[in-house]
Amino acid sequence: MHFDEMEKEALDNVNETVYRQFPYLQGVEPDVSAMDGEQFLLIYKGDATTADGHSLPISLRVISDKDGSGLKFTSSR
């Protein structure tokens, strides 16, 4: 079975996991694109605040299966 869009429930599951592990991305909606097979690439872009008060841009790439599990994270600053 092939999905052109990620199911809302699966996206909610991924968001919940991301927000728990990366609280500074709370409320950020990802850009979602389909990959080969039944995997999806989600890209979250936000800012974290450093200890000295500076803003640090963060980009988090998440690869998920169609059910919102099997997550792989890659973060860049």
Q: Return the structural class.
A: alpha+beta
Q: Under CATH, the topology is which?
A: Nuclear Transport Factor 2, Chain: A
Low-confidence stretches: none
How is the main sheet built? 4 strands, antiparallel
Mean pLDDT: 89
C-alpha geometry: elongated
Compute the gyration radius: what is it?
13 Å
| H/E element sequence | HEEEE
Estimate what percentage of residues fall within beta strands: 35-45%
What is the second-level CATH architecture? Roll
**Neighbour order of strands in the largest sheet:** 1-2-3-4
Strand count? 4
Describe the structure.
- The structure is a single chain.
- The radius of gyration is 13 Å and the shape is elongated.
- By secondary structure, it is α+β, with helices and mostly antiparallel strands.
- Strand 3 (55-65) and strand 4 (72-76) form a beta hairpin.
- The chain is built from 1 helix and 4 strands.
